[in-house]
Amino acid sequence: MNKNLPQAIAMVRELLAGDGDVASAIGHALDGAGLLVDPERTFGAVLRRTPQGWAPVAPATQPAPPEPTELEQQASDWDAACERAAQLVDVVRATYAAEPDFVGVRADRDTVVISLQITELSRWAGWMSTLGIVEHQLTGLDYVVCGRTTIGDVPVSVLAYDVPELQLVTEARARRPYRHAGILYDLALPQEDAQRDIWYFQGENIEGMPLLSLDGRSERCTLAAIVDLVGPLHPVSEPVAAAQGGERG
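and the corresponding structure tokens:
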């Protein structure tokens, strides 16, 4: 039962004994006592979905506002962000499903999560280059590295499983380890670039950056420049002969 009903009945009973426009007096008295519901009074915004987007729940007699409120706009923006993420999932799956490292992709609300199973560090270097992941965007655990990037305006998390273990194994075996842009290289091994050219370690510059050259050429390039221009690099199995190592430049 409406808890206001006893008070309303008592007020009506009292006013019925009066003179004049009794009905009007009763109505005003009830309204003044807060016993009537005002359909135009708002007690807080409640949203509902419509074919046109989010809109406030309002009495039928109250027209919808011509412009969305801030709350409505935030809800619409969130829906749009989640829809863009769902669309990107389909694009990523169609583009990369055939790659041997690709495990899966899913939408987590407005974010896309890509899962990879990495068996070679050069493959992870390739993914980082393709997806635009740089070193400061990496975080890691004992069994996975997470790279964060964006595709379009959609935030993307890339989970690269087994990368930490591969890095530990590579570092333990490496005769000349060097870490650059989140990738560990063994510069005692020749490095093959994306164009199938082979680069050999030829010392370091004064800043400690490794210098490499193509076989038989005197020009030296920094490892960073080679990775940026013709990477990713992956090691060739035969170690570099001692005569091919250069002095610090």
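(Above: one complete record from the training split.) The radius of gyration is 34 Å.
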